[in-house]
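Protocol step 4 of 6: structure prediction from sequence.
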Amino acid sequence: MTAIQSHVDADGADLTMTEGLRFDSVSKEYGHGKRTMQALDDVTITVPDGSFTTLLGPSGCGKSTLLRMAAGLEQPTAGTVSVGGESPAALARSGRLGVSFQDASLLPWRSVERNVALPLERRRDKSHTAKRIAELLDLVGLEQFAGARPYELSGGMQQRVSIARALAADPDLLLLDEPFGALDEFTRLRLNLELQRIWEGKRFTTLLVTHSITEAVILSTQIVVLSPRPGRIAETIDVDLPWPRTAETMDTPEFNGHAKYLRDLLLGLHR
């Protein structure tokens, strides 16, 4: 496996140099005895600080399991997971972890702004909370919907609220588990480009789980391809497309070269 050590933007600025998230020889088993099922086998991944890394692979290969480990929601059977040298649980306790799942999981009785405010409510100093919420709603283009309830929003708008909530506490690590998987193709692409714009402005370490090759290529600095269960690292690919990436990027030979390589790799894993 080849892990990225650095990335350079269009101006030649170095973007990622240090380790943000690391899975070290991680394995995961479920069940006991004859009913044991191995989900992951000896997975080692380095997610550099400030990078956008995508886990790509077939259903059941352990992508979401790895993300849940990074969130401190599951523990490996063997191996370790660390974020900047500390445990995911410690990162979560300190409020420096943001998570957005495929289901936006908004509280239906709360307005948009009060859903976004949820991670900030534990803070003693609330003097800047209103300003922070306003900034986030502006960032995701929902400032006009601050007082709306979730049922008044489209699916794409709900996902933008979920992402704003995940960003509320300025996380060191952002985890995204198929956040756009239930959306139509046009809305998904539009939100991919929106997410890229947000990431470019903040450069928070991001781990995305997806089944979409297009989504992986348009968003990522690196793509980790997992084999069918038990999940193992098939290949780690550096996506060297220039930033910012746009809809027109998808028409370039470079984009299509990455997409074809990933498609052929994933098809080959099933042979």
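Step 5 (inspection) to follow. The longest helix spans residues 185-202.
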